[in-house]
Automatic annotation (TrEMBL), chain A:
It comes from Nonomuraea longispora. It comes from the Bacteria. GO terms for cellular component: membrane. The chain crosses the membrane at residues 12-34, 54-82, 103-124, 153-170, 191-214. Keywords: Membrane, Transmembrane, Transmembrane helix. The keyword NAD does not apply. This is Succinate dehydrogenase cytochrome b subunit. SUPFAM superfamilies: Fumarate reductase respiratory complex transmembrane subunits (SSF81343). The keyword Cell membrane does not apply. The lineage of its organism: Bacteria, Bacillati, Actinomycetota, Actinomycetes, Streptosporangiales.
From TrEMBL, chain B:
It comes from Nonomuraea longispora. Keywords: 2Fe-2S, 3Fe-4S, 4Fe-4S, Iron, Iron-sulfur, Metal-binding, Oxidoreductase, Tricarboxylic acid cycle. This is Succinate dehydrogenase iron-sulfur subunit. It is an enzyme of class 1 (oxidoreductase). Its cofactor is [4Fe-4S] cluster; [2Fe-2S] cluster; [3Fe-4S] cluster. It holds the Pfam family Fer4_7. It catalyses: a quinone + succinate = fumarate + a quinol.
From TrEMBL, chain C:
It is found in: Cell membrane. PANTHER family: SUCCINATE DEHYDROGENASE 2 FLAVOPROTEIN SUBUNIT (PTHR11632), SUCCINATE DEHYDROGENASE FLAVOPROTEIN SUBUNIT (PTHR11632:SF53). It catalyses: a quinone + succinate = fumarate + a quinol. This is succinate dehydrogenase. It comes from Nonomuraea longispora.
Length: 220, 246, 640
């Protein structure tokens, strides 16, 4: 795990865990289109999963632990690889021009940082309700609808920017994970790149649909 | 054509370098980039100045000795071309051209545009070979090799070891170089016995030399004079992870 | 330049008996070295091309203590890497009638009966092992769909015996040798010194015992002693300044060995390749070879009229001279290298050449494109067309290519016996640096074969016989000091002149002189002129050379100046050798010796010998090694 390749593998695996989470998260979010109750039931179900075999919130807590571990490891690997890269080029070029197509590859670190900051805000807003008008005790759907109220358009804007950033991050990141794990064959490169783009697109649309729908009054 | 050159001058490994500006006149569009520098150097010698040191040898794009970052691009902007094969007709009259050496900590500058790439040799020493002493080989036809595998192996084997991949990589990674050799040998039956240990040893050596890690930006393959494909790195990663799984 | 004639020499190591048993016999008679003693025996190998790289690797594998040197920044860059076409081997995988004997026969005949039968037969025998070795190393030769190795016929051979790896056979074989070498470096049997240039040979008690080298980065002059020295430093084609050799190729190592007593054999044998991209201007620094295969479909022509400045497309069919097809109706555009080269020179001398300076002929694919279609032509030659366009900026699909002959390979080199040992005991010479196997002309795809045969298979056996008497003990300290002082003095001298001309300007002038007077066609008059002019130019060099910088740092001007200085001396010997050999043979064409059709005319009565030159204070001494042909009957070539 200490080698550059090991760290890359850590990034790929933890990234994959987070992508999986995002997909489920997005599907859950879309429940809002089936009504507030549907969304609240989903939120409740997350907490009572496997009850009564396991106590309340067992599965969710495990998921949270795995996620936190993934985020920490992902960041650790990213930071140590960035530091390694910095050491590998102590003298910078006077002139440097990119030749690879696609700017997404060059904003990975910046994008990651933006996303990390957003996640903090996002948790404060909708998970802990600290910065949410309805607060922690309100029902999840109420918090969501209140959070993206037209009067709070700037929250929606932050959300849009962050989700687009996630999309760009994943467009390179998903393909990159396959590459890092050595699952890219000669012929599969194109397919994987397309797949990565598609997945990122679906996630962006899926995540943006609820808040935009709320802000523009489609969902009340 | 007349050109303004901004060239990195550094008199020795431990000296500070700086960009120096030169005017070059009457450049023929049919000159190669290195011939243009030859002309400048001839003038510098006659003026009693130290000519610009740069590595070069075959001047036909195969030895991998030449290489400089031209206007921010390793080997210049023309694709799939070494510096020696780049010709002046691709530049505008009156242009200013910035010329820098490969920049990477494992490639310390020896003088001006000359860098020390012995780190590449050490990566090969770590495992970039098939252990087969002279005279011990079976008949060449005893093991058939699928044509597709032989062709893919060849594509990876065309690496000339110039170091442009490292120069272009934002991380200063030598992954494309290392992966090219690992892929070449792991696609052939002759390379199988040492396949996994080779990947581990070469990647570890790459790290030990101080190269950066790969973030799959693709800058390397974009400047590679031989167009070594990026999926060689996937092959390297796969072999490496297998080594660590065992 | 006057010379004297010394006694004939003989190759005393070549075994007698049936030719196919000679190498076996020698392998058995060569003494072995006790494995425990090998580590104590130190061998220096200079040069890391196919010959040097494979030799150092193999000697290391055998357990000798090897030190290897190259002037490049990595052993992988040696100029063997640029060989395009392929490597011959008598595998007969095609069942098309090839055999060791046929490869032997073709090589002796192709060399215009100026090579030793024993050596060539061994080369053909060993050729089959080279392919096995290379494949086992992972060299990605071209294969067919059945998974077996593909071969092609090359350079007019009637059998398909050339193995290839697209147009990069030399590169792939060299990387195989390089990787084997690096494996030994890792194993600790070979110590590698890159960016080191050999500047003298240490001879002590009549034996080659080491080298003086310059660390090109620090400028330090280093002494390295050993029990034997192997030179694998390549050819000297760069004496012509413009050649297909790499810029760094030089004669210094073999020339300094020659100065120390090693005989130099057949220096005048030079191979000129007909299909190179012509010179485009005064600044030209090297010439690039285009594969000979282009002549399979391209038609060579020049305008009928002199100084015709029309664009090629504007010259109507009846005003074009397809001169190869006209003069050689049977072989047409596929005549051998030397004939095609000379014919091109002749039409250009008539003033009918095309392109800058009138030094070029057209190689036209118009008819091939018309006949086969553009796609088919692209499939066959696409990469070559691309390379041509990259260099010239012209698209050969629309405008005919321009080609001109260029110096490509030198068959001459240090004289060696069957064991590849020079006239200095303990000094072995392999690859292009020696003279041994190609006679007066090398066949296409045989250079790679010889380099690897010498390095992987021949030298490792024969050097054992010499080393069996070692270790050779202490080296005479005075001999080492003398060599070192000589090297330092020369550097000092070069730096102290501070004249007005650069090393390149002298090199260009010498090269032009050699090309004009000792190039494709030589006459007594031209050679005498050259022999008069070279000493004058050399004298001017030592009076007016300008070398900037110091000796204590990387100094490319100093490196270049030292090499040019040696080229002067070599050039003189080449011209002398060419003057003395009044016959034409292979790559040596004396205008005075041609038949009524203008073909090279050998004089077997007087010249069926190797000319081995000894350097003495009283001038060059010529020793002849008579050549006898028991297995191949001497005949005159004809391509009409």
């Amino acid at each position: 795990m200490g080698s550059s390749n090991g760290k890359k593998a850590v990034m790929a695996v933890t990234g994959a865990v987070m992508v999986l989470f995002l997909v489920l998260h997005m599907l859950g979010n879309l429940k809002i289109f089936f009504g507030r109750d549907s969304f609240n039931d989903y939120a409740h179900a997350l907490r009572t999963l496997l009850e009564p075999l396991a106590p309340y919130r067992t599965v969710l807590t495990i998921v949270e632990i795995v996620l936190v571990a993934s985020v920490v490891l992902h960041m650790w690997a990213a930071i140590s690889l960035a530091r390694r890269a910095g050491k590998a080029r102590p003298v910078k070029y006077v002139a440097k021009k990119s030749q690879a197509s696609g700017y997404t590859t060059h904003i990975m670190r910046f994008g990651g940082l933006t996303i990390a900051l957003f996640v903090v805000w996002h948790l404060l807003d909708l998970t802990f309700g600290v910065v949410n008008p309805k607060g922690f005790d309100a029902a999840p759907a109420d918090r969501m609808v209140a959070g993206f109220d037209p009067s709070r358009w700037w929250v929606t804007l932050i959300y849009v920017v962050a989700v687009v950033m996630v999309g760009l991050h994943l467009r390179h990141g998903v393909w990159s994970a396959f590459q890092t794990l050595g699952w890219v064959g000669r012929t599969r490169t194109r397919t994987l790149r397309l797949g990565a783009g598609l997945l990122s697109g679906v996630l962006v649309v899926g995540f943006l649909a609820p808040p935009l729908a709320i802000t523009f009054g489609v969902v009340q | 054509m007349n050109l303004t050159l901004r060239v990195w001058r550094q008199s020795g490994p431990s000296d500070d370098g700086r960009m120096v500006t030169y005017q070059v006149e009457d450049v023929s569009p049919d000159m190669s980039f290195l011939e243009m520098l030859d002309v400048l150097n001839e003038r510098l010698i006659l003026e009693g100045d130290d000519p610009i040191a740069f590595d070069h040898d075959c001047r036909e794009g195969i030895c991998g000795m030449c290489g400089m970052v031209i206007n921010g691009v390793a080997h210049g902007e023309q694709r799939a071309t070494t510096t020696c094969q780049l010709h002046m007709r691709h530049f505008e009259d009156g242009a200013t051209i910035t010329i820098e050496p490969w920049r990477a900590a494992p490639f310390p500058v020896v003088k001006d545009l000359v860098v020390d790439r012995s780190a590449f040799d050490r990566i090969i020493q770590a495992g970039g070979f098939v252990s087969v002493p002279a005279g011990s080989a079976p008949d060449a036809h005893s093991i058939p090799v699928r044509k597709e595998d032989a062709d893919d192996a060849f594509d990876a084997a065309t690496c000339i070891g110039c170091g442009a991949c490292v120069a272009a990589c934002p991380n200063g990674s030598a992954s494309l170089f290392t992966a090219a050799k690992i892929t070449h040998l792991s696609l052939l039956p002759q390379g199988q016995p040492e396949r996994v240990s080779r990947a581990k040893a070469m990647v570890d050596q790459m790290d030990a030399e101080g190269f950066g890690g790969c973030t799959n930006t693709g800058e390397c393959t974009a400047v590679c004079p031989k167009g070594i494909p990026l999926d060689t790195i996937a092959q390297m990663n796969s072999d490496y992870l297998k080594a660590n799984g065992k | 330049m006057n010379h004297t004639q010394g006694p004939d020499i003989r190759d005393t190591k070549a075994p007698s008996g049936p030719i196919e048993e000679r190498w076996e016999k020698r392998k058995f008679s060569a003494r072995l070295v006790n494995p425990a003693n090998k580590r104590k025996l130190h061998v220096i190998v200079v040069g890391t091309g196919l010959a040097g790289g494979s030799a150092a690797a193999t000697l290391g594998e055998l357990g000798y203590n090897v030190t290897s040197f190259c002037y490049q920044d990595s052993p992988r860059r040696a100029h063997s890497i640029a060989a395009q076409g392929g490597i011959n081997a008598a595998k007969n995988y095609r069942g098309d009638g090839d055999s060791i004997h046929r490869l032997f026969y073709d090589t002796v005949k192709g060399g215009d009966f100026r090579a030793r039968e024993s050596n060539v037969y061994r080369l053909a025998q060993v050729s089959v092992n080279i392919i096995d070795q290379a494949v086992a190393q992972g060299v990605p030769f071209a294969r067919e769909y059945g998974g077996l190795l593909d071969t092609r016929s090359f350079g007019g051979a009637q059998v398909s015996r050339t193995f290839y790896a697209r147009g990069q056979t030399g590169q792939q074989l060299l990387l195989g040798a390089y990787q084997a070498l690096e494996r030994q470096v890792a194993a600790g049997t070979v110590t590698m010194h890159t960016r080191h240039e050999m500047l003298d040979l240490i001879v002590s008690d009549g034996r080659a015992r080491g080298v003086i080298v310059r660390d090109m980065v620090t400028g330090e002059i280093e002494r390295h002693v050993a029990d034997a020295v192997v030179l694998a430093t390549g050819g000297y084609g760069n004496v012509f300044f413009l050649s297909t050799n790499a810029k760094g190729c030089n004669t210094t190592a073999i020339w300094r060995a020659h100065e120390r007593g090693a005989y130099f054999a057949n220096p005048c044998y030079t191979q000129i390749h007909p299909t190179c991209i012509p010179v485009s201007g005064e600044y030209q620094s090297k010439l690039t070879l285009m594969s000979e295969s282009l002549r399979n479909d391209g038609r060579v022509w020049v305008p009928l009229r002199k100084n015709d400045s029309r664009a090629p497309g504007d010259i109507p069919e009846q005003e074009r001279d397809y001169y190869l097809e006209r003069i050689y109706p049977a072989f047409g555009n596929l005549v051998p290298r030397d004939i095609a080269s000379r014919a091109a020179k002749n039409v250009c001398d008539e003033g009918r050449g095309v392109g800058p300076g009138g030094l070029g002929v057209y190689l036209d694919f118009r008819d091939a494109i018309g006949r086969l279609g553009r796609d088919a032509v692209e499939k066959k030659y696409g990469n070559l067309f691309e390379m041509y366009e990259r260099i010239t900026g012209e698209n050969p699909y629309d405008v005919p290519m321009r080609i001109y002959p260029a110096v490509h390979y030198t068959m001459g080199g240090l004289w060696v016996d069957y064991d590849l040992q020079s006239t200095i005991p303990g000094l072995f010479v392999i690859g292009e640096a020696n003279f041994s196997d190609h006679g007066a002309n090398r066949l296409g795809a045989s250079a790679l074969m010889q380099g690897l045969a010498d390095g992987y298979f021949v030298l490792p056996t024969t050097i054992g016989d010499y080393l069996a008497d070692g270790p050779y003990g202490d080296v005479d300290e005075e001999a080492v000091a003398e060599a070192e002082v000589k090297v330092r003095d020369k550097i000092e001298r070069l730096l102290s002149v501070n004249g007005t001309r650069t090393p390149d300007s002298f090199h260009r002038e010498l090269g032009k002189l050699m090309w004009d007077y000792c190039g494709m066609e030589r006459t007594e008059e031209s050679l005498r002129k050259a022999l008069e002019r070279i000493p004058e130019l050399r004298e001017e060099f030592w009076r007016d050379i300008k070398v900037t910088g110091t000796a204590e740092k990387l100094n490319q001007v100093l490196e270049k100046a030292g090499r040019v200085a040696d080229f002067f001396d070599l050039a003189e010997l080449m011209c002398l050798d060419a003057l003395v050999r009044t016959e034409s043979c292979g790559g040596h064409f004396r205008a005075e010796s041609q038949d009524s059709d203008g073909e090279a005319l050998r004089d077997d009565e007087r010249f069926a010998h190797v000319s081995a030159w000894e350097r003495t204070p009283g001038g060059p001494v010529l020793h002849k090694e008579p050549l006898e042909y028991e297995y191949v009957k001497m005949t005159q070539r004809s391509y009409k």
